[in-house]
Amino acid sequence: xxxxxxxxxxxxxxxxxxxxxxxxxxxxxxxxxxxxxxxxxxxxxxxxxxxxxxxxxxxxxxxxxxxxxxxxxxxxxxxxxxxxxxxxxxxxxxxxxxxxxxxxxxxxxxxxxxxxxxxxxxxxxxxxxxxxxxxxxxxxxxxxxxxxxxxxxxxxxxxxxxxxxxxxxxxxxxxxxxxxxxxxxxxxxxxxxxxxxxxxxxxxxxxxxxxxxxxxxxxxxxxxxxxxxxxx
Length: 232
Ligand SMILES: Nc1ncnc2c1ncn2[C@@H]1O[C@H](COP(=O)(O)OP(=O)(O)O)[C@@H](O)[C@H]1O
Ligand SMILES: [Mg+2]
Known about the structure:
single chain, 7 helices, Rossmann fold, alpha/beta, binds magnesium ion, 11 strands, binds adenosine-5'-diphosphate
């Protein structure tokens, strides 16, 4: 599904130049669940943002479904992202002024899906993440675990091919964290390809494979389980 070839990203400020990604060759197959680990500042979020088409690399190639998108303009990236890629962040990033239903509905508005179909899709996914009973609540009225389940619902409501999660359990206690990991694992078994950044070896245990980053480079890879059913 995705493959990078010598991916490079450099951040320049007036004082310093940081090589955030240094010749990264990273591949994810359809149906895989991949964990990305490494110390703070090693480039994990930078890699996820480029894979998620939120940012461009400074060098190298990025193939998304066989197409090199490394030099895509922002508008092209936005178009490709819509409906194809869902994001989940450590800090949930829900919109406080919108209730649960409206937060989850948001990506469907950008896809110009009609109101009846939107309602069906939102209700279905809220049910899927066991949060239907909170549809009218606002994010601040929910626990962290519930907020993250809403954020996951928002990320997958449009049935993206690829779900990217940047430390999704980082702000959760172990019980809520485990619930979120079970949910991600189930979504993967239902066919969603997942790339997840994590600091937790336990969470990485849910993935097929772990990629270890250090100073912007992949240093080791570890395969835990074979990808059973490869979906096309
Ligand atoms: N927008 C930015 N401007 C300047 N430096 C950045 C920016 N984003 C990230 N960096 C630097 O790039 C490196 C990698 O950052 P990041 O990908 O966020 O690491 P991680 O997610 O592994 O903690 C760090 O040294 C960080 O300070
Ligand atoms: Mg990070």
